[in-house]
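Journal club side-thread
Mid-discussion, someone asked how the predicted structure for our own chain would compare to the paper's figures. Pasting it here so we can look after the session.
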Amino acid sequence: MKIIVTGGAGFVGSNLVHALSGKHEIHVIDNLNGGKRHNLAGAECKIHYEDICFSKIAEADVIYHLACRKMIYSIKEPELDLTTNTQGTLNVLEIARKADASVVFTSTGSIYGNPTVFPTPEDHPPDPESPYGVSKWAAEEYCKLYHKMYGLNVVIARIFSVYGPRQSLIGVIPKFIDQTHEGKPMTVEGDGMQTRTFTYVDDCVEALILLSEKGVPGEAYNIAGEKPYTIAQVSKTIAGLYGIYGIKFIPRKKGDLDLINPSTEKIRALGWEPKIPLSIGIKKTSDWMREVWNE
């Protein structure tokens, strides 16, 4: 098949490209605003250095749409969230409609905001707490509309706290690993009691590929790890790898959420389940970072 991966030089996108490499004709669309070319080293793919809002690539069988602005920047630059995350998705849907391609759109658990039901199911009312969450929710609505209006085969993947190799240091796990490696305290926002359901990147990639094959068009699916952990628990796990422990508490960002614990029953019904527990995933991430440091 001819497969397009938007944002394919980014963290999750590049891991997806490597998983698909050698099996299909892979085209990556990435303006390298957040992605890195070296993430694709060794992968069989053609890279198109384009902004997803304006790409005109015309042919595809499957489009994995991962290109987006990140949550961490959304408070200061909400206009770019709207442009990239929402307008960019609309452009992808138009490309898919004209090419009769199927789409897997990577959304986010941030659309739920601070939910009131745990584990949180996909039909929980959205109530985002950040421009990032709003822009992704709007993009989801366009996906559902294109399925309704045109019968487009589009599936929505709401991914949660993905971590692992090739992630930048803005992610809490690689940031903590890097800080500890440098002999610095881990900078924990707030009191560290905010809870996340971390997803190892290989598990996430496996879920995205499964959704392209078995996902129900027009439907959304949560993708998350085995269970929630507090940020404090994560810091202690990382400290155990290095035998040292230090924390510096800093103020929380606006839009930061308290408890994230999604239900994954829906995607598990398709045959998926997370395979990598947090302690092993952190070790794998640390080992990869050590290799990069030693290169």
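Post-session note: The chain has a mean pLDDT of 95.
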